[in-house]
Hints:
By secondary structure, the chain is α+β, with helices and mostly antiparallel strands. Helix content is 41%, strand content 12%. The protein contains eleven helices and nine strands. The chain has a five-stranded antiparallel sheet with strand order 1-2-3-5-4, covered by helices on one side. A two-stranded antiparallel sheet has the order 6-9. Helix 4 crosses helix 8. The longest helix is centred in the middle third of the chain and has 25 residues, at 193-217.
Amino acid sequence: MTEKSKATAPAALHAYEPLTPDLVLDALASVGLAGDGRLMALSSYENRVYQVHLENTVGSDDLAGDIVVVKFYRPGRWSDAQIVEEHTFAAELMAAEIPVVGPLVLEGATLHRFGGFSFSVSPSRGGRRPELDNLEVLEWIGRFLARIHTVGSAQPFVHRPALNLQTFGYASRDILLAGGAHGSHGSHGYLPLDMESRWRKAFEEAMLVAQTVFESVGDARSLRLHGDCHPGNILWTPEGLPLAGPHFVDLDDARSGPAVQDLWMLLSGDRAQCTRQLGALVDGYEEFREFDRRELALIEPLRTLRLVHYSAWLAQRWHDPIFPINFPWFGSSDYWKGQVDMLEEQTEAMQETPLMI
């Protein structure tokens, strides 16, 4: 094990500066797995994720010759207790024979530490994005979402936060406005002076409407969710192949919230298309679990919260060099003008008649 592999991240460096290929392989070795040197970085901005081929000779280990995915969690984002709670949820889902790809138990644990990082190891699963214009595919996904929610409703999260107006809305606003406007890439405020007042006004109006909608829905049940169930987090294996159907990955954003949060990100197109897609999802869902149709009114408020939370996420990660490279438009007046326009559109959308099925 090299001295470089043992190093922890100095405060002056960004979080992932010490994460070299050697450290990745040494981390695997620390839990009894030997990589053969083939390592590929996978697409992930929040964490750092690598696909690693294992050596064919790892004693009697069942993973010998396999491919694993190693996730290094962003320091400071989740506590160990929150990460373990995510892992426990994944284990419950897998025990219920739901096709969720969760971390492996290695050396008696799913969460490990090495070189200043927390990491986990999962089996590698192939697949393509699901064809969401196929109603049978949506019904299939809906059946599994219902089963995920049945497990999710059995007990609450204790450490992981909820998805609500405060955590996704007002907390995001506070991040974006902290310290006032300091230019498009300032270290505190992230709205340029020419857009701050317009964005703040659009945000406050949107939150007032969203709060009204949440209050009109009433006591919608909060349960453990996947939380980020967009098409990129569902791997689809065609029928006729082993493990055919959907496989749900990346529970990193698992939170408590209304069931519809795990459905609405699978909708696209105009209102008629979304209605058909939603109908197929709910048809499948209700083969296993009743769906509370009052929650359909929450789709646009949840979309609004995600919009604001996304900007705050970019702001919080701006010190990571990968973000300015991949999101160079963030913080510009044009970007914030677009955000104002979208908030105004969402304010109107939240006041329209919800999708009906």
